[in-house]
Amino acid sequence: MNADANIIAVQGHTSRHNERLSFAGQGGANTSYGSVPFTARHDQPGKRIAVPVRVEPKVFFANERTFLSWLNFAIVLGSLALGLLNFGDRTGKIAGAAFTLIAMFVMVYALVLFQWRAERIRQRDAGPYDDRRGPTVLVAVLICAILVNFYLRFVHS
Asked: How far is CA 68 from the centre of its chain?
């Protein structure tokens, strides 16, 4: 059995007169749509067939778009940190160093998440691809860095 296929159960369907069903056919004859004829069969109820799962390209692009969005945030945060490191006083340099570490963490986190999602998409795994803890941890760390910055600013002023 193909590992890239989902297995579904196909039930046979019968009409009121217990004949084979077909689409727009006369007397139960097969009707061709394109090159594949279709006829529902009732002689093998419960037969399992392999149906390959098609992954739309937009899923891969959405993953890449999310990765680029995380990187955009990390670059903005890193730019802020670079400004604080270059033009700040002692407190600004401490805050700049903290924001630099957070920006590097965000870049690594985005890469790991992108690779994890891409692998799951390639394997056609079902299930949620979201991460509920990462953004929460990021916000908590950013709030801590800002609070430390405020504390140092008011203590050293």
From this structure: 13
